[in-house]
Amino acid sequence: MLAVLSEIPGKQNCWAFEFKWDGMRVISYWDGHNLRLESRTQRNITASFPEFQNIGKAIGDCPVILDGEILALDQQGRPNFTLMQRRMTAGPNQAARIADEVPVVYYLFDILYVKDRETLALPYTIRRQALEGLGLKHPRCQIPPSYVGEGDAMLEVARERGLEGVVAKRVDSPYLPGQRSPNWLKVKIVGRQEFVVGGWTTERNHPQRIGSLLLGYYEGGQLKYAGRVGSGFTAEDHRRLSALLAEKERAVSPFAGPVPAARYVTPQIVVDVEYRRWYPGGNLQQTAYKGVRLDKPADEVIREQKEAVDAR
User: Fold this and answer.
1) Which of 135, 186, 216, 280 could lock 3 by a disulfide, CB 3.0 to 4.6 Å apart?
2) Active-site residues: which are they?
């Protein structure tokens, strides 16, 4: 289930508020004997996170399906997506070594199945009670806080701690798999979303370094140009992106309309970009690259629009 972009709700007593976590969305399946971790693209990533292989011991023989976010934390305990990229891109053969260098935690915020019962149709508050009732005790797994009616306070805490924002969930809402529902709202402090890369330029005197990425989003089945991002790249980003882009280079632009001259690519690479302004009919302003999203399908990337909140 996905959230829609919005402002903080007015009548907050109808909503439960959680912090918005900057990591990798993961569904975990435990059948009482075996664990499977699955990304948003339904890729089996179990072997890439060896630290969670013993979650079953913490749960017992009770079959469950859990939803949550795997995060890499910096030294201040804040989610760091740059660090998380190292875990997302590490293959099973590298996982054990990278796990020691970049430890992660799994924040669990919903339960979709427990024992012999599907919980999707139950209200959020009942699912939350069932999740907390598992009594899960694992050094790398946590159930993050959720507070009803405290949206303004949590947004201020998120701002103070450098977090991305908060998520508001209607207390009576069911879990709707695969749907982006107004029953869940994401309230961001700074503009940020995924974009599809349609081309790139190189630095004038350093052809192996990225000058900028040409960004787009899908609308009506066409890739629309949104602007560029040319800051935020690390040395590792330059190396990795140059290799990815070269593999997908093509002769013609994938965008629906005119765009700046560049080297173009098949639109399959999804990146996370932060921005300060994006006016209707204009391009992104003051952008910063945050990382590649291997867990997001390119054809699902659209322009996120803030929606009016039903405050009832």
Assistant:
1) 186
2) 20
